[in-house]
Amino acid sequence: MERAEAGAAGSSPGALGPEEPGGLPWFHDQVVPAGSSSSRVIVHVDLDCFYAQVEMISNPELKGKPLGVQQKYLVVTCNYEARKLGVKKLMNVRDAKEKCPQLVLVNGEDLTRYREMSYKVTELLEEFSPIVERLGFDENFVDLTEMVEKRLEQLQSDEPSALTVSGHVYDNQPINLHDILHIRLLIGSQIAAEMREAMYNQLGLTGCAGVASNKLLAKLVSGIFKPNQQTLLLPESSQDLIHSLNHIKEMPGIGYKTTKRLEALGISSVRDLQTFSSKILEKELGISVAQRIQKLSFGEDNSPVTPSGPPQSFSEEDSFKCSSEVEAKNKIEELLASLLNRVCQDGRKPHTIRLIIRRYSSEKHYNRESRQCPIPSHIIQKLGIGNYDVMTPMVDVLMKLFRNMVNVKMPFHLTLLSVCFCNLKALNTAKKGTIDYYLTPSLSTTSRSGKHSFKMKDTHMEDF
DNA sequence: TGGGGTTAT
DNA sequence: ATAACCC
After folding, report:
1. In this structure, what DSSP letter does residue A246 have?
2. A422 CA vs B5 C1’ separation (Å)
3. Rounded alpha-carbon distances, angstroms, from residue A411 to A7, A220, A360, A406
4. In this structure, which of A113, A159, A301, A385 has its CB flanked by the most CB atoms within 10 Å?
5. Nucleotide nearest to A137 (CA to C1')
């Protein structure tokens, strides 16, 4: 893999400080208390134009050509060839074709291959450290603190270039090899490089990485050098980084709604937010949001890297025009069929099903409504095996949810349908002798005889 | 704006 | 069930 970055400024290999009498490097006694939340080493890994990369792997003839991935009338992402020619993310297909007539488009409405590749990336990163948090399909945070500590213990002072940073350093700030925080982050940058190398060698994917002391800063710094490069942020540069943002809307964690409310208070820059009265902010946004985002404005973020593990929900959606119950039912069947395949592969069983609609309306930014209910237990039990037996009863349940939301006797116009399986439970967690065992129909003796199915507290659709 | 995801209230 | 956030 090509490495665009040169060795970082300020890192001079072999410039170790004085050694202790025992021959150990000076920093071996600079212990950070175990479990301490101060001074972590976090990496944010961000794949380059992920969907486009997956498409180019599926069809290598696309490599070298300007490529866009299309969903409905939008180019949701594109490769760098296309970006050079003026195509932007989430650009209208017409505008994109106008800007770039040679643009090759592939349909990316089926996320299956993207999702599969996404989890391969997360699993690869989990081999480095189990503390991996997914953010969308193409980003991951990894807490490297423990791994860095282990490498520091192993580190021999006579290893040549053991203390060379990998990739860029933000602002070209010099590394101080006598500063333990610098050393720890530098080791983090080496691990980040190994991660990117593994992603390329094992999966054929390129991406960026940012190494810093918390998630916010790692995420912000990962985007500094853009495709296929990595950047390390040293603590002394964190204020420069956050003030390089032109507007608070660029701060991860401050979304559309909060931005509007902040603007109404006259807050638009990061410094505006830093210096704004905490009391007033708390009264306007609530204490929780106010305190969190004001800390973010200083580059402070104590939120942990929370291991994502397997997904909490599976959903399939399609945006399309729908004005009759028959159209809705057909689409629901289609969405459900795909979901059943996915849930079957996962192995766990969903205990809740949800139907989401979007109604046509001229103005109103985010309008979605949903109804959910427990999946009847007799359907849950058939989930692993008979894929077709469950279709009909599940569609019945979903259509009841549909009619609960939409008055089918009146004209209606929907623009989206989505089906979601959630409340996923592992199959045989109930162990003999526990309360669960006796309350789990599939394991209890009465249920095993197959003659009684008990209901427990499931709400039934007849209730509607 | 698509087709997904998450957590908090 | 909705509302906010993320991609």
Report:
1. S
2. 12
3. 66, 47, 12, 9
4. A301
5. C7
Residue A417's pLDDT band, with cuts at 50, 70 and 90, is: very high
Residue A209 has pLDDT above 50, yes or no: yes
Structure tokens at A129: 């450290």
Bridge pairing between strands A349-359 and A369-374: antiparallel
Separation of CA A169 from chain center: 25
3-class secondary-structure state, position A34: coil
d(CA A145, CA A165): 16
Q: What's the token pair of residue A24?
A: 């150990």
Tokens (6 digits) for A95: 């505008």
This prediction has a pTM of 0.89
Letter string b/e over residues A335-364, b meaning 16 or more CB atoms within 10 A of that residue's CB: bbeebbeebeeeebbbeebbbbbbeeeeee
3-state secondary structure A140-175: EEEECHHHHHHHHHHCCCCCCCCCCCCCEEHHHCCC
Alpha-carbon distance values, A378 to A21, A85, A351, A390, A428 (Å): 71, 56, 11, 9, 16
Residue A252 Cα to chain centre, angstroms: 13
Indicate the SS3 state at residue A453. Answer: coil
Q: A172: which 2 tokens?
A: 């070209």
Pairing of strands A313-322, A139-143: unpaired
| CA geometry: angle A415, A417, A419, nearest 5 deg | 165
Has residue A357 got a pLDDT over 80?
A: yes
Percentage of residues in chain A with pLDDT exceeding 90?
78
Q: Find the farthest-apart pair of alpha carbons in chain A and give their distance in angstroms, rounded.
A: 87
Is residue A439's pLDDT more than 80? no
Which has the minimum average pLDDT: A202-206, A227-231, A283-287, A431-435?
A431-435
Nucleotide nearest to A373 (CA to C1'): C1
Å: A395 CA to B8 C1' = 31
Triad A408, A411, A416: Cα angle to 5°: 80
Residue-wise pLDDT tens digits, A368-402? 999 999 999 999 998 877 677 899 999 999 999 99
Nucleotides of B under 7 A from a protein CB: 1-9
Per the structure, the residue whose CA is closest to nucleotide B7 at C1' is A312
Confidence band (pLDDT; 50, 70, 90) for A427?
A: confident
Work out if A446's Cβ lies within 7 angstroms of strand C: no
A425 CA to C4 C1' distance (Å): 26
Q: pLDDT tier at A429 (50, 70, 90 boundaries)?
A: low
